[in-house]
Specification:
heterotrimer; A mainly alpha (355); B alpha+beta (161); C alpha+beta (552); A: 355 residues; mainly alpha; 15 helices; 0% strand; globular; B: 161 residues; alpha+beta; Alpha-Beta Plaits; two-stranded antiparallel ribbon; 29% helix; elongated; binds iron/sulfur cluster
């Protein structure tokens, strides 16, 4: 697997670019990824979410503007962008204005490490997985900024919860992700198992032992426990139901988002949905074989899988009650942490015995 | 965890079935019962100016002015404050005021909802409906069978002098 | 001599023996005997009655007469034995110029709010009351609106200073420990308050250490409204507007029962069956809404239980619309019967109901697996918002809130009215005393209501007698002057009582509404303090408050 720049160089039949061209091509690649992600987020945040939730709740949802209500996206965007930007008097202006930008920027930047397949990957450093996870945890920072600078008690409670939650679920997230790394080392036979492209490559072949059957060697089959733990941690890390405490509509009005409106709100909202997709992309890359799949190009498979992830998250949201803050922390520290470590040790142990 | 999974199953079942209960108003008209209490229909030719409706109305929606010979001069209906209780219809001895099934009503100001006798002649929900038809109102449609006498009697015995 | 009469005689003696100087007289109200007590000793009288088993203070209402004010206490006896049910009233006449009565809030904690309301609206001062503030009207209001002399047109100017932070004193920082807490205004516009409730909350971290509900944002003075309308027709549309979410039929029944009892109006059997049918449909709709909104509070927006509950409620709503002509403001009951017969074609309508009843068990299974079966919900709702049965009785809680604490007090059962006695149904109780129990009681009651509806449909379908929907009612209803009556029915939220004092005209002299939600909310701070913020919200949802009824 290669990065976008290498793919372009290949296409042009040159060995490499000068630094300037490298930079320009990188920008182009980044723009492609960001536009793709923004389109997807636009579709899902504004349209798919409504449609899917309506379907779960026996309703119809948007169907007036355009075919199947799809034109609601530009309409919504227009509405949100044309709103007056109201900045409450007492807010800490710097933090208040910086938070939305930072929120959107961190999440979008994190997509650089995602191997979408078909050559669409901006950066593929040797420690890609760690970078990606680091960006995931960065998402807590803008929330804290937004909550603290808003000078609103609901925002305050919201960001407090976010901090507690981010800390509690950070370690399980990383450790459960690390459980696949030894497998990568084995299957891809590489000395750089943290490289995202290697993680995907390792899942291309059929699963060991059942070679006759077309079960792919996705780590969700090889490492089901880690997959579940990772899924739970992702939900908590990005504050999705049942862990959506920082926003908790019925308790905290809108949590850290309470004082935001207009464009600033759009950015935070976008960051939130981008985060679900980033979670989905990570999950796809780590456990669902990335872009592996028959017939269609890898990038289509990859995006399809993240869509499924998204639908599942929304399905959970519709069905599972929100947990309480003490229960959340208890679960994080007392169970999830131990389980993830146990799983990592077990994986290492088994591999050590087998090999 | 089994319970959580079962819950997820329940919602998944709903999603797969895809039944909806949304009424796509205004493309689709919402099911209005025959008895529905909507805006009023007043028939000037039937009204005998007995003022029973004015008296029974709990909040002064109806305002009647008569001259000294007790002939009607004004019949004002301030729909903005009507609570659609149908008491006026219930007591009117001649069915001069009837609540129709019409429910789409809007106005820019409160004053626009004050109708006088002339306004009541051509309010939109009269279109296609002859006020004189109230002569033989289809009471059976909403009261049910053979209750007609009873309602008439109750009404008459209540407020007749 | 019946048990109850004998008990009353004994009671007379006990009270006279023990408190000779506290009793002024014995009187007879339409619903029960009344003890006229010395206003400064009324707490002792109520205490003696409480010791003698009258363990439920339904309401405190204040009445104005030409030469005195009266504070009237309606006490009931709640036991498991239905034969034992009994009522007694206590009247404390007060001085016309400076009305003051001793508080009974140290005997029944629930009296606290009731007395504040009496003070607010009628201006009777309750001595030694722990918290004699206005409750429904703003603190700065001038005058007491239910008094005869009150001028409704008088302007209510309030300067900004008068409103300057009314809570300042109460939560002033006294020491360093207080710095660890945070004062939080929840509401009046907040997604979880289901209307306009203002909770002055003090948080210690995420834990609620103090909460003070501030009500009255939806106060319309329904009592005054009813006092200027006539019994026969005009009052009936208004009960629909107390508990305005589908429970209209039950509220109308509360009014109908009180005045039919007072004016001795009979109701034909056919109409009684229709009334039960209408009421139970109403109850199903109201409980569906309660369950749905509770889920909304715990799950957050976009949860599906709310949608499913609304969908099912909608079906009931349509049947009620067919019957009464409107979806919420039914105005269907009449004194002596109902307004119209069943809708034609009857078979079709019965078919609709039967179809709904057939589908209901499957739907209830779904609700149960989504609510009762879901471990995460159980974790949230079980063991939170604990309401001990003793506390519940102290505060006068009724309805599903009380039955969720294991006390089987249901007015339909202990003090039967209408056709309920002829039908076969059970009182649903759970004794978890927590949020989950209260919701499960509602789910159970939906099923019981469905049973009742089914029986009514059976009876109506095979009805071959005279379909008499209204009895002959006198042209104008004028109960004799100074008769009093307090009756209650089982509304959607509990004991919905009406206290009427007549003055010989065709309009009531005093029309007091005993709202179940009001008492259920009074206990809220007991439930919420010490809980997490999230559980406080869930508890609020489980109490199922409708602010049209709390504030009236
Ligand atoms: S429907 Fe009721 S409120 Fe409206 S005009 Fe008739 S009597 Fe008055
Ligand atoms: S009750 Fe009927 S007849 Fe009498 S004034 Fe009113 S509308 Fe006219």
């Amino acid at each position: 697997m290669v990065t976008f720049n290498d793919a372009v160089a290949d296409l042009l039949g040159v060995d490499g670019f000068s630094p300037l061209v490298e930079f320009i091509v990188g920008i182009v690649g980044a723009s492609i990824v960001v536009s793709v992600m923004l389109t997807i987020i636009g579709i899902s945040a504004v349209w798919l979410k409504r449609k899917w939730n309506a379907r779960l709740g026996d309703r119809i949802a948007v169907n007036r503007i355009g075919p199947a209500g799809l034109m609601v996206m530009p309409a919504d965007a227009l509405k949100l962008f044309s709103k007056e930007v109201v900045v409450p008097e007492d807010v800490d202006r710097i933090g208040y204005k910086l938070a939305p930008m930072l929120a959107a920027a961190t999440v979008l930047a994190a997509f650089a490490f995602i191997p979408f397949g078909s050559g669409l990957q901006i950066a593929d450093p040797e420690t890609g997985l760690i970078f990606a996870l680091a960006f995931a945890s960065l998402s807590a920072v803008p929330v804290v900024m937004a909550g603290y600078s808003s000078k609103n008690k609901y925002s305050f409670l919201g960001f407090e919860r976010e901090v507690a939650q981010a800390i509690a679920y950070e370690i399980p997230l990383v450790v459960s992700a690390l459980a696949v790394v030894p497998l990568v080392a084995v299957f891809a036979d590489t000395s750089a198992p943290l490289r995202m492209s290697n993680v995907v490559t390792a899942q291309q072949g059929p699963l060991l032992g059942v070679t006759g059957l077309p079960i792919p060697n996705w780590f969700i089959f090889a490492q089901p426990v880690a997959a579940v733990l990772f899924f739970v941690s992702i939900l908590a890390e990005f504050s999705r139901n049942p862990f959506d405490l920082p926003e908790a509509g019925s308790e905290l009005v809108a949590g850290y988002l309470t004082e935001y409106g207009g464009v600033n709100f759009v950015l935070l909202f976008l960051a939130e949905f981008a985060a679900i997709y980033f979670g989905g992309a990570l999950f796809t890359a780590l456990f669902l074989g990335g872009g592996s799949g028959p017939v269609l190009p890898a990038v289509v498979w990859f995006l399809g899988k993240t869509f499924v992830f998204y639908l599942v998250v929304q399905w959970f949201r519709a069905t599972i009650p929100r947990v309480r803050i003490d229960q959340l922390l208890e679960f994080g520290w007392k169970y999830l942490l131990e389980l993830t470590f146990l799983n990592l040790l077990l994986t290492a142990g088994i591999l050590w015995v087998v090999l | 965890m089994m319970g959580v999974l079962r819950s997820l199953g329940v919602t998944a079942k709903h999603a797969l079935k895809g039944d909806t209960f949304t009424v796509e108003y205004p493309d689709e008209s919402p099911g209005i019962s025959p008895r529905f209490r909507g805006t009023h229909k007043f028939s000037l030719s039937r009204c005998i100016w007995c003022r029973m409706c004015e008296e029974v109305c709990p909040n002064g929606t109806i305002d009647i002015k008569t001259n000294e010979k007790r002939e009607g001069e004004e019949y004002n209906l301030n729909l903005g404050q009507c609570i659609y209780c149908r008491l006026c219809e219930e007591v009117c001895p001649v069915d001069a005021i009837i609540l129709t099934q019409h429910f789409e009503l809007n106005a820019g100001t409160k004053a626009e909802l004050e109708y006088n006798m002339d306004d009541l002649m051509d309010v939109p929900w009269y279109k296609g409906m002859d006020p004189l038809e109230a002569r033989e109102p289809d009471r059976g449609a909403w009261i049910g069978t053979d209750e007609e006498d009873d309602v008439w009697e109750t009404a008459e015995s209540t407020y007749a002098d | 001599m019946s048990v109850v009469t004998r008990r009353h005689e004994e009671l007379h003696e006990t009270i006279e023996d023990e408190l000779p100087d506290a009793i002024l007289d014995f009187d007879e109200h339409h619903n029960a005997p009344a003890v006229v007590a010395n206003p400064s000793r009324v707490d002792d009288v109520v205490r003696i009655l409480k010791q003698n088993g009258y363990n439920h203070l339904s309401s405190v209402s204040a009445v104005e007469y030409d030469n005195r004010y009266e504070s009237v206490y309606h006490l009931r006896r709640i036991t498991d034995d239905r034969e034992d049910f009994d009522e007694i009233n206590v009247v404390a006449p007060a001085d016309p110029d400076e009305p003051a009565v001793e508080t009974v809030s140290d005997v029944f904690k629930g009296a606290n709010w009731h007395e504040r309301e009496a003070y607010d609206l009628m201006g009777i001062r309750y001595d030694n009351h722990p918290d004699m503030r206005r409750i429904l009207l703003p603190e700065t209001w001038k005058g007491h609106p239910l008094r005869d002399e009150y001028d409704v047109d008088q302007p209510q100017y309030t300067t900004l200073e008068a409103h300057a932070n009314p809570i300042e004193e109460r939560y002033e920082v006294e020491n360093d420990a207080a710095l660890d807490t945070m004062f939080l205004n929840i509401g009046p516009h907040h997604p979880a308050t289901h209307g306009v409730l203002h909770l002055k909350t003090v948080l210690d971290g995420e834990v609620v250490v103090d909460v003070d509900p501030d009500i009255g944002y939806l106060h319309r003075c329904e009592e005054y409204l009813c006092e200027r309308l006539d019994y026969k027709y005009q009052i009936m549309p208004y009960p629909d507007r107390w508990d305005y979410v589908s429970a209209g039929m039950l509220n109308e029944m509360a009014y109908a029962r009180c005045i039919e009892d007072l004016a001795e109006i009979d109701v034909p059997e056919y109409a009684q069956v229709i009334r039960v049918l209408a009421q139970e449909l109403s109850r199903i709709a109201a409980h569906m809404l309660a369950v749905g909104t509770f889920a909304l509070d715990i799950y957050g927006e976009l949860n599906v239980i709310f949608m499913y509950a609304f969908k099912d409620r909608e079906i009931v709503q349509e049947m009620l619309e067919d019957l009464s002509g409107q979806r919420l403001m039914f105005n269907y009951l009449r004194l002596g019967g109902v307004a119209y017969d069943l809708p034609e074609p009857r078979d079709e309508w019965f078919g609709k109901i039967r179809g709904f009843l057939d589908d209901l068990p499957g739907k209830m299974d779904e609700y149960r697996s989504l609510l009762e079966g879901n471990e995460l919900l159980r974790k949230r709702a079980e063991g939170t918002g604990i309401l001990e049965p003793e506390t519940a009785k102290e505060y006068g809680c009724t309805g599903p809130v009380l039955r969720g604490s294991g006390v089987g007090y249901d007015v339909r059962e202990v003090d039967p009215y209408g056709y309920y006695d002829e039908l076969d149904w059970d009182v649903v109780t759970y004794d978890g005393c927590d949020n989950l129990s209260r919701v499960l009681v509602r789910l159970g009651e939906v099923e019981e209501s469905a049973r009742l509806v089914e029986q009514c449909v059976d009876i109506l379908e095979s009805w071959d007698g005279d379909r008499e929907i209204q009895s002959r009612v006198p042209r104008s209803i004028t109960p004799p002057a100074e008769t009093e009556n307090y009756t209650a029915v089982e509304g959607a939220k509990g004991e919905l009582g009406i206290h009427i004092v007549s003055d010989g005209t065709e309009k009531p002299h005093r029309f007091k509404i005993r709202s179940p939600c009001f008492s259920n909310l009074a206990v809220f701070s007991e439930l919420a303090e010490g809980e997490y913020l999230a559980d406080m919200i869930a508890t609020l949802g489980s109490l199922d408050l409708v602010f049209g009824e709390v504030d009236r």
